[in-house]
Amino acid sequence: MTLKQTARKLIDHLDQKVFDAIYSRALVYNTCWEDPAVDRQALQLTAQDNLLVITSAGCNALDYALQGPAVVHAVDANPRQTALLELKLAGVRTLDFEDFFLLFGQGRHSAFEELYRDVLRAGLSEFAQTFWDRNGGWFSQPDARDTFYYFGLSGVVARGFRAYLRVRPKLRDGIEAMFEARSLDEQRAIYDSRIEPLMWSKGMNWTLSRQLTMSMLGVPHPQRKEVERQHPVGVAGFIREAIEYVARSLPFWTNYFWALYLRGSYTRACCPEYLKKENFLALKAGLVDRVRAHTATVTEFLNGTQERISRFVLLDHMDWMSSYYPEALVEEWNGILTRAADDARVIFRSAHAWPAYLERVHVGRGARSVRLMEVLDFHPELAQELTRQDRVHTYAGFHIADIRS
Question: What is the rounded distance in angstroms from the CA atom of residue 15 to the CA atom of residue 21?
Fold first, then answer.
């Protein structure tokens, strides 16, 4: 191994340790960064479906519950993500819509301490109580601009961009103007004339290319390397392409994903489905009880249940598992195949259009071991069509596969 290769390996190891340290100590995601409108079309949920979804911030677990499946198992190895979902579940059960929207729509509530102490806390697990005892102030900062969505690791990055816009008022005004556009032609014109010329400075490109930035957004080193291998301008170029597609091809005035991090809050007209009054009331009327929160790895959950799961929403975590914990990835797929119902479907995302682990992973044991690809039937045309509709658009690959019986 050359000196350069040794140095690269040490840097990669350090990047892994930084990501592991960050993930194991913090709330990473304060909102989900996957478009559930796309997922719903891929999943085609029915009242007979048992669904497993990686929790993240819990927004999409609530969205899927609105489709009326039998149960939504929200599973996450990070207990802080479970604590956030628990707070949302407690809020649906005990708050009226106006208070709930102040908390999770606007991201702040002047009476949060009282609501939490008198109403919400009793509905939380011990870990969640301890977490929100310490961090409940995220919802009640003295500065009205400091909403919940500027806390947690991804929120810190959003806060940094907000500070950047303060010193770039022309760029800030251009972004606000794009939110006010009501046609794609007007939106494109604003982006091309007022945002694109100011946005992609050397400093911005450098910041987006740092592993620390990516780690705080929940993107581990292996995913960053996948993007770098695919894109000639690296991570910054990939992100620029994603933002330009969203800004020029999809309505920005309904894109609550980008609006949240640029503005720090949702509006009644631009928010996730669970924050709309009629849907909140449907959850409160009973659908919320179909959501079950679990702090566990996917494998731990599957090994501990006898349920047959018909729908799996695995986000993008297999990218970093394939690099850091390849044996655990095999165990997870074996668990999925063991517990999968006859009509099971899996959806997942990746930093790569076709991740290499799909070709490498073998499932089963001994003489019965087969390539993962031999037990999955993919739907590439549907995945490509849904990718074009994706309002986030920051994944190179979206995959839909049925598990062969």
Answer: 10
Q: Which neighbouring-strand residues pair with 350? A: 397
The rounded Cα 329 to chain-centroid distance in angstroms is: 20
Q: Tokens standing for 110?
A: 């002047």
Q: How far is CA 317 from CA 55, 119, 134, 253, 257, in A?
A: 12, 34, 28, 30, 20
* H helix or E strand, kind and range, residue 318: helix 317-324
- DSSP labels, 146-178: --GGG-HHHHHHHHHHHHHHHT-HHHHHHHHHH
Phi/psi-derived region of residue 68, left when phi > 0, alpha when psi is between -120 and 50, beta in every other case: left
- pLDDT of the residue at 206: 66
- Of the listed ranges 33-47, 230-244, 288-302, 353-367, the least confidently predicted one is 230-244
Helix extents (H) in 202-276 = 202-208, 211-216, 221-230, 234-249, 256-263
Summarize pLDDT for 323-361 with one digit per residue, the tens.
Answer: 778 899 999 999 999 999 999 999 999 888 888 889 899
Residue-wise pLDDT for 60-111, tens only, equals 999 999 999 999 999 999 999 999 999 999 999 999 999 999 999 999 999 9
- CA proximity to 248, closest of 236, 258, 235: 258
Sign of the CA dihedral running 364, 370, 371, 373? negative
9: its two tokens: 């390996």
Please classify residue 248 by burial: count the beta carbons closer than 10 Å to its beta carbon, then call 0-12 exposed, 13-18 middle and 19+ buried: middle
357 vs 229: which has the higher pLDDT: 357
CA distances from 174 to 197, 250, 330 (A): 11, 17, 47
- Give the pLDDT score at 7: 44
Beta-carbon-side half-sphere exposure of residue 109 (alpha carbons within 13 Å): 18
Question: How large is the angle between the packed helices 256-263 and 169-180, nearest 10 degrees?
Answer: 150
Residue 395 pLDDT level (bands cut at 50, 70, 90): confident
Q: Exposure pattern of 14-39 as b/e (b: 16+ CB <10 Å)?
A: ebbebbeebbeeebbbbbbbbbbebb
3-state helix, strand, coil in the chain (%, to 5): 60, 10, 25
